[in-house]
Design a protein that fits this description.
The chain has 49 helices and 2 strands. It is mainly alpha-helical and 997 residues long.
């Protein structure tokens, strides 16, 4: 009914030649107050009357333009109606419509939710209509080999509208949303583009506009990278010096040495994306990081672990990185990897570092490294000779000076040779126990000589063979348990094997943690003893539970026997393993009796001497109980158990030592274990052991803040993180918590006066955060950053501090997003995933154990050059590595939701402040650094946060590219939010332009 009235009014207006103002006054008498013309198809009615003849009626078209300006009709409805015009033979009508579209494109926007819902589809239809017009023209030229004057004019007008449309970022953004909303209709655009391209090729037609083909392609294949986005990265290219790789690897190698190669590969890929490193630059940084870390270590265990990582693990990391980053069409390298060669060219420019390494290692380090890498086809023989020759002169001079100084040979020379002995030990351990007892004992005792044990553990760790080593040692310990009635030489060998394997296993558990090297429910004697009786760092045991599992009858018998001078256990019913389990009961009785003075100090000393005289394992088991007991009593009650532990650290007499086999090595290892257990319970003085464990908690009587300042000054002076500093910072993390450590680190970053220093500190802090990236990120988002922004409105959150703080948060979120903690894994056994779920990397984790018991057992972490790594199985690994994480875990999700709620409170005002600008930087950097992988985080954005931010921020800072990237356009809610924000951005922009006019 209304439509008929509108059509009659148009007829009257045409007959009476109404002006635009008259039309506007009279049409409002037809359309009810507050209602829009779209509800009554006003634009359809006007265009229907304007396009009746062979030419368009300009007066009626003016009525439509006036209706647009008066907001009687929406741009979406007008464009959708124009795109329905399919009389392509009426050239004059088409040219009039193109002129009309050209005149209104600059003002296209939406003002209501209804308009927003139809605008993307209208823009898609408009582009399709323009494509059809262009296709009609090119097809006509293809058939006739010429264009009429009218067609040429139509062609020019079409090119003008297409160019204007492509240059309008708002329309391109709406088109991008429309592509996701209606893929079927958008596919017609590509079909028309294909037709146009074919016609242009066949006819050799040259469009009047030189760039129109490029514009058509952009419209047909619109993507998010076509949308402008202001980037906050002041260094679009990688920085000349990286301060991130070395600290990150120093932290990970020392704290997570058992992680497989895929863990490090994922971490390096994450860093490569953040830093925009090429493969060459990434390989260079990894190699250099190994050298820098290795050149700054003093302790043996650090030398061996970092050296083994550099020589054995780094090549595998590089091979996997190259395989994952290689384009699918790129051929598999057979002789060498070009990026590795280029990385070494860069490395050779760092003469100071190489000179230091040559001096430390007593060799030409490049020659040493490349000879092994040539066997793995990372480089070839030509490259080895070339690079070694470049370093020969400098290396020879340094070595001469070292020889003159008569310095000892570097431990690096032994690391390379440790791989073969490790395979030999594993092979011996896998052989039939009953056939090789004497040989096995000789092998294990040889391992304990000097630093061989540290070397083997380091190589086994980085090669992924540590669990194999531990499992075979456990089996050896099981086979060596006492058999009642066995006497003579076989009993002595069995007891020594039990003792050696027990001590080696205990030392390994102290170094790496039981949750890393042992299975959860192992039923062997040693695994049960660890679960029930062994004191570990950060895993205190209840001494009452240890006493509760003791057998009173066995305890009484052991106590009576050990109370005699020169006691010997003649009873065959009590085995070595029984003594280990029941020693807590024995020592508890001794302690109580000593407290009540029913036993004298001399009696206690006699009992302890008899315990340690039998087996060194007994001393360790006794110390474990005493350490647990010291944890549970008051300070004044610590002295007696501490004195008892000191008695175990007193060497036995020479006669007693000479009566046992390989006693010196076992004694040294037992002292090392006992000192560490004592240190866990009573950390006074300095820990002087043969090897400082990788996870040893460093305790000091100095205030935490003083310890932090000391270690940070070391880090700041170096520009990297020495291994010892990484240990101290990790201890501070455990002692004071992630919030305290994160707060101190951020304070150091904010103290910097220059942005260059801030960015350097940012990289180091980001790497240090990987001591526990999940908890540090949680602390940053929920405590440190909100407190700084809320309470410190001064210089701390102005530029450039605000930018650097936002970037640190974003870096940590991205890393935490890609880090997963497997079920039942300890904190130390973190692992990294690329899809956020428990990904089975078959190619990287399969075991290669031969059926005959021989050992080829490096995990497939350690693959040869002809292995699956470069084969077809890498395709699944390749795709998995690039998947976007689909969901967030706790506590990351709650932390991000919390910081977003804080942001929402900031943007409730309409006044721009440093707080609000920080919110903009945070969101912008999330999109800029995280790209598609940050999508699960962006899903948590509150619905009104960006809308409110747009109202406060200047539109020059926020572009359509940022808005389009914030939302998941695959879902209707994401598209609605994107269009709503885009239209708000557009209206603010138009308002500013109108004010300027």
């Amino acid at each position: 009914m209304k439509e008929n009235k509108i059509i009659k009014l148009i007829h009257v207006a045409w007959r009476e030649r109404w002006t635009d103002s008259q039309w506007g006054i009279n049409i409002k008498n037809v359309i009810p107050r507050g209602a829009g013309g779209d509800a009554y198809n006003l634009s359809d009615c006007i265009l229907q009357q304007a396009l009746i003849g062979s030419t368009a009626n300009p007066m009626v078209l003016n009525y439509l333009k006036h209706s647009l300006c008066a907001h009687l009709v929406s741009y979406a409805a007008v464009l959708r109606r124009i795109s329905k015009y399919d009389h392509f033979d009426r050239i004059y009508c088409l040219t009039s419509l193109l002129d009309f579209v050209d005149s209104i494109l600059d003002g296209v926007t939406c003002r209501t939710k209804v308009e927003e819902s139809i605008l993307p589809g209208a823009i898609v239809s408009l582009v399709d209509w323009l494509m059809q017009i262009f296709a009609t023209i090119t097809t006509s030229y293809e058939m006739n080999r010429e264009l009429s004057a009218e067609q040429s004019y139509l062609h020019d007008q079409c090119c003008t509208v297409i160019e204007k449309l492509v240059r309008n970022q708002f329309i391109l953004a709406i088109l991008y949303v429309g592509r996701q909303e209606d893929p079927d209709n958008y596919s017609k655009i590509r079909e028309n583009y294909a037709t146009i391209k074919t016609s242009l090729t066949n006819s050799n037609f040259t469009p009047s506009h030189p760039n129109v083909e490029k514009y058509l392609q952009k419209l047909a294949y619109i993507d998010v990278h076509h949308l402008d986005m202001k980037t906050l990265d002041v260094h679009p290219l990688p920085e000349p010096i990286s301060y991130c790789v070395q600290p990150l690897l120093a932290v990970e190698v020392l704290l997570n040495p058992c992680n497989d190669t895929s863990y490090y590969v994922a971490e390096m890929q994450m860093l490569q994306r953040l830093k925009k490193f090429s493969n060459t630059r990434l390989f260079y940084e990894i190699i250099r990081a190994g050298f820098v870390s290795l050149s700054n270590v003093a302790e043996t265990s650090h030398d061996t672990m970092l050296g083994a990582f550099t020589f054995f693990k780094v090549p595998q990391i590089i091979k996997q990185l190259h395989a994952l980053n290689r384009a699918p069409t790129e051929p598999t390298p057979t002789d060498f990897i070009p990026e590795v060669v280029e990385a070494f060219e860069m490395l050779l420019e760092d003469n100071l570092l190489l000179d230091l390494m040559d001096s430390k290692c007593s060799c030409n380090i490049i020659d040493y490294l490349l000879n092994d890498w040539a066997k793995q086809h990372l480089v070839n023989e030509v490259h080895v000779k070339h690079f070694a020759a470049q370093r020969d002169q400098e290396a020879s001079l340094l070595l001469q000076k070292r020889e003159w100084g008569n310095q000892t040979q570097s431990i690096i020379n032994f690391i390379i040779r440790a791989e073969v002995p490790l395979s030999g030990v594993l092979k011996t351990l896998s052989t039939d126990y009953n056939k090789v007892q004497e040989a096995l004992l000789e092998v294990l005792c040889t391992v304990l000589v000097g630093n061989s044990f540290d070397l083997l553990l380091s190589v086994a760790t980085v090669e992924g063979r540590l669990k194999t080593f531990v499992s075979r040692l456990i089996q050896c310990n099981e086979n060596s348990k006492q058999i009642p009635g066995e006497v003579g030489k076989s009993s002595i060998i069995r007891s020594t094997l039990f003792d050696v394997s027990f001590l080696m296993l205990t030392s390994i558990v102290q170094t790496y943690g039981s949750s890393v090297v042992l299975t959860d429910n192992g039923d062997s004697f040693f695994e049960k003893w660890v679960r029930e009786c062994m004191v570990e760092r950060n895993k205190p045991k209840n001494p009452r539970k240890m006493i509760a599992i003791c057998d009173e009858n066995i305890v009484d018998e052991i106590l009576m026997t050990f109370s005699k001078p020169d006691a010997q256990l003649k009873t065959s019913n009590i085995t070595w393993q029984d003594i280990c389990i029941n020693l807590p009961g024995v020592l508890y009785h001794v302690l109580i009796s000593w407290e009540k003075e029913t036993l004298s100090a001399a009696d206690v000393k006699n009992i302890l001497d008899n315990i340690k005289r039998r087996m060194f394992s007994f001393s360790v088991c006794a110390t474990s109980f005493l350490s647990a007991y010291m944890h549970s009593v008051k300070d004044k009650e610590v002295l007696k158990p501490l004195n008892m532990i000191q008695q175990f650290l007193t060497p036995a007499g020479n006669d007693e030592m000479s009566s046992q086999e390989n006693v010196k090595e076992r004694l040294a290892l037992s002292f090392q274990i006992i000192r560490k257990m004592q240190y866990y319970a009573h950390p006074t003085g300095s820990l002087k052991s043969r090897s400082l464990t990788l996870t040893q908690n460093l305790v000091s009587r100095n205030p935490l803040i003083d310890q932090f300042k000391d270690v940070w000054s070391t880090v700041a002076d170096h520009g990297w993180v020495p291994p010892r500093a990484a240990q101290v910072i990790e201890s501070l993390l455990h002692a004071a918590g992630p919030a305290w450590l994160a707060s101190q680190l951020v304070e150091e970053m904010l103290k910097c006066k220059y942005k260059k220093d801030m960015m350097k500190t940012l990289d180091i802090i980001f790497a240090i955060s990987h001591l526990d990236i999940e908890r540090v990120t949680e602390a940053l988002l929920t405590q440190v950053v909100p407190q700084i922004i809320n309470n410190r409105q001064g210089d701390d959150i102005n530029e450039p501090q605000s930018y650097v703080l936002a970037r640190l948060c974003v870096y940590c979120i991205i890393s935490a997003l890609e880090t997963r903690t497997q079920a039942n894994f300890s904190q130390k056994k973190r692992s990294r995933s690329h899809d956020g779920e428990d990904l089975e990397l078959n190619a990287a984790k399969m075991r290669k154990i031969t059926g005959d018991g021989s050992d080829n057992s490096c995990s497939n972490d350690f693959l040869s050059e002809n292995s699956l790594l470069l084969g077809s199985n890498m395709s699944s690994l390749h795709s998995s590595m690039r998947e976007t994480p689909t969901q967030l875990r706790e506590p990351l999700q709650s932390s991000i939701q919390y910081i977003f709620r804080v942001f929402q409170q900031f943007v409730t005002t309409e006044e721009l402040s440093p707080k609000i600008y920080f919110v903009y930087q945070f969101i912008s950097l999330l999109v800029e650094c995280g790209k598609e992988r940050i999508r699960p985080v962006l899903k948590l954005l509150p619905a009104t946060l960006m809308h409110n931010l747009l109202k406060v921020m200047l539109t020059e800072d926020i572009n359509v590219g940022l808005i389009s990237r914030l939302y998941d356009l695959r879902f209707n809610t994401g598209r609605q939010s994107a269009v709503s924000d885009l239209c708000l951005w557009r209206n603010i922009k138009l308002k500013q332009q109108s004010i300027q006019l």
